[in-house]
Design brief:
The protein is of the alpha/beta class. It folds into two domains: 137 residues, Aspartate Aminotransferase, domain 1 (Alpha-Beta Complex), CATH 3.90.1150; 247 residues, Aspartate Aminotransferase, domain 2 (3-Layer(aba) Sandwich). The chain contains 14 helices and 13 strands. The strands form three sheets. It has a seven-stranded mixed β-sheet, sandwiched between helices. It has a four-stranded antiparallel β-sheet with strand order 9-10-13-12. Helix 12 packs parallel to helix 14. The chain is globular and about 60 Å long.
Amino acid sequence: MAFQPYQASMLALGQAPSVIRETFEYGNRRAAEIGRENVFDFSLGNPSVPAPESVHDTMRTLMDETDSVLLHGYTSAVGAEPVRQAVADDINRRFGTGVSAQDLYMTCGAAASLTVTLNAVVCPGDTVMTFAPFFPEYRVFVESAGGKLTVIPADLTHFQMNLKAFAELVTPEAKAIIVNTPNNPTGVVFTEANLKEFCKLLHEKEQEYGHPIYLIADEPYRELVYDDNTVVPYLPNLYDNTFVCYSFSKSLSLPGDRIGYILVSPKMQDSRLVYAAVCGAGRALGYVCAPSLAQRVIAANLGKTSDLSIYRRNRDLLYKNLTDYGYRCIYPDGAFYLWVEALEPDANAFCKKARDFELLLVPSDSFGCKGFVRIAYCVTTEMIERSLPAFKKLAEAYGR
């Protein structure tokens, strides 16, 4: 066999950066040319609201009062037990579950949570399903774990889970399904009725096929919900074979600190064996001992969030004005994304046209759904206000 200097699949990934990152880098280049204040970059889901002051206070106290070797040293591979217990206590208090520290595995954010979970349960040839539109990296994570991704077509009216299409596409090869609510890229929160019907259907398929189908709840946006009447049901309470892949990146505005966790529901079939497989996958991938300082910081700030009122103000400002200009916008109950129908069938062409007005939007194709764009409104309110005339001119260019 001829020598190969690198793995071809990894080369292909490295040479095909995500459209989100490409748009972000274009924005940086354009800002250098005409000034940052003249570029309206809505590409990246990077929190713009500062972390709570209590996070900074905790860091200062830990740095001043904790032995440096202990503070910056290794924790247990699965995470410090006092931290895992604190997280378990918080989950139990909020959702009435029976979670313990032994059900939790601390990770470097949601991406690590998803990749570890998928590598723990996916065998070669297994199918993992998800609902369009979806975070594009799901495909990378699933295929790298040896699985095949089946995309369930979007409900183009309400962007709830398309259960009719799921029932038609699910097969005995289905090992897991990834659900993301509040959703990236739409900002939609799946209704309690939609989730309950889905879990009932999923359980029926488990019974029919004679094996578990794991529900992987991708939950970095759980706390980012803006309307008082919006409920995000806790999926382990609806379906036993559930993993929760959580990140504090969005709720506490800590994306650069890379901290989150995997919850293996104690009600899961063979939960202790599955948890051991999670530990093995973490070991194989090198995801052991999540950042020690970050673990201690989040343990002291459970239940807190950054100032979500800023995101809500941004959402309301964009939604009202874009709707007034003639855009069709899907109302976002959570996250910090606005999903907008492009003003021509080709979303990529529409985004290219938007650049004429210095508007940097992300086309929907890589999210598994054509004809829309994602607008990340985790930016300053002032930038949104400055961008509104550009959105209006773009609409007028299409005769709106």
